[in-house]
Write a structure and sequence with these properties.
Elements lengths: L3 E10 L2 E10 L6 H12 L18 E4 L2 E4 L5 H4 L4 E5 L6 E3 L2 E2 L2 H9 L21 H7 L9 H5 L1 H5 L6 H11 L7 H8 L13 H5 L6 H14 L4
Helix pairs in contact: 3-7, 7-8, 7-10
Length: 235
């Protein structure tokens, strides 16, 4: 196309850093991940970033693009560039390892804290059949396509103001567990999410739902948790 993009990319580590500008050739159907890859391959080989599948399946390429958390492999430059400029930064609300790569440990620690699948049945017990049309199963199924990309976590202003807050991904996970008929730990899950860092901290701003690339609704999941926790006496 003959045009160039001016791309500001955050460089640095946990101790600090800043933005560096790069002139990047613009091409038809170019994605933001294409831009970052071009910079690493042609201008700055030490640039650190994370990606894997490149087709919107893994979520590992998520970054802040002009202030918005996005999967960069599915974000086309012509949809987000402003006056021929892009500003690319590491995901918000997560510690920076280096450049565009963030440390996901605390995100996954919070995910694990809400509890894993807990069943009293053994492999010798008969499998309980649950209709996929059962209303409770439908509710559980609505949130299970989360792939832990942390876009919702980066979008959440509550996490920004309270780093101890479990965050929308972990709470969405908790809601799927509470509504899973084969999960025997629902009571414990509700106790966990009703704690001081749990669902009651949500301000219902909806950024998590607005930005979820898989079109999940963590805000609705958190609202469901609030109702269920109150109903169980966990105020």
């Amino acid at each position: 196309m003959g045009d160039n993009l001016t791309v500001s990319i955050w460089r640095g580590d946990a101790s600090g850093g800043g933005f560096t500008d790069f002139d990047v050739p613009k091409h038809e159907s170019q994605t933001v991940l294409d831009v970052v890859s071009w910079v690493q391959q042609n201008a700055e080989p030490t640039l650190a970033y994370r990606f894997a599948c490149r087709v919107g399946m893994c979520g590992s390429c998520a970054m802040m693009v002009n202030g918005t958390p996005r999967w960069t492999c599915r974000t086309h430059v012509d949809k987000v560039a402003r006056h021929g400029r892009l500003k690319i930064a590491p995901l918000r609300n997560l510690p920076v390892i280096r450049d565009l790569a963030t440390d996901m440990a605390e995100f996954f620690d919070k995910w694990a804290r809400v509890g894993g699948f807990d069943a009293s049945k053994t492999r010798t017990d008969a499998v309980v059949e649950i209709s996929p049309d059962d209303p409770v199963r439908v509710t559980a199924s609505a949130g299970i396509e989360c792939i832990n990309c942390a876009v919702c976590y980066a979008a959440c202003d509550t996490v920004a103001g309270n780093p101890d807050y479990l965050g929308p991904a972990a709470l969405n996970r908790a809601w799927t567990l509470v509504n899973d008929a084969k999960h025997d730990g629902s009571a414990a899950t509700l106790v966990t999410v009703a704690a001081s860092d749990g669902c009651y901290n949500c301000h219902s701003m909806g950024s998590c739902t607005a930005h979820c690339p898989n079109e999940l609704d963590p805000l609705a999941s958190i609202a469901g948790l609030k109702r269920a926790a109150l109903g169980a006496g966990n105020a």
